[in-house]
Each structure stands twice: as structure tokens, then as C-alpha cells.
Amino acid sequence: MAKICPITDKTSKVAGGYSNRIRATKFNPTGKVRKQPNLQKKRIFVPELGKTLTLTISTQAIKTIAKNGAYKTLKKAGII
Fold first, then answer.
1. What's the distance, Cα to Cα, between the start and end of the chain in Å?
2. Which fold has domain 13-77?
3. What are the residue boundaries of the structural domains of the chain, listed by start?
4. Rounded Cα distance, 69 and 80, in Å
5. Nearest-5° angle of CA 5, CA 34, CA 28?
6. What pTM value is reported for the model?
7. Which of 35, 39, 56, 68 sits a CA distance of 20 to 30 A from 77?
């Protein structure tokens, strides 16, 4: 399964990796580092459908569902 959130479309990013000692003295990159999104496996109950869905979503998506409601958020994302 791809490491992507279906609601917020968060994926991995390539970032520069620096040690603090190198950063303090001179420009000497330590290479590229892949940063992964914070994905959580959650069971979400949708009262309008009377179903429970198991999704792997980002923590930002969990906050969005808590704010806007499960049905509205999942409908907008095209999951249901």
C-alpha cells in the first residue's frame, strides 16, 4: 500500500539531512532524507451510512474529520 493519505493527499517528501555540528561550521550536506507522513490506521463510524470504515489517514485528516464530520469529509474526498 502506498504511503499516502486519501483525504489530505499527504505523501513522502525528500528533505536535506544536516547534523547540527556541520550546520554550525560550514556547508557540508549529509545527503537527502525521505520524510514520511504521520499515517494512522483508524476505524471511523459514519452514522449516515450506519457503517464503520477502516482507513489509513494522516493525523491532519483525523482533525479534519473531527471538525467537519465523517460523512462530509469522506464524501468530499471521494471515498464514499
1. 19
2. Ribosomal Protein L24e; Chain: T; (2.30.170)
3. 13-77
4. 13
5. 150
6. 0.80
7. 35
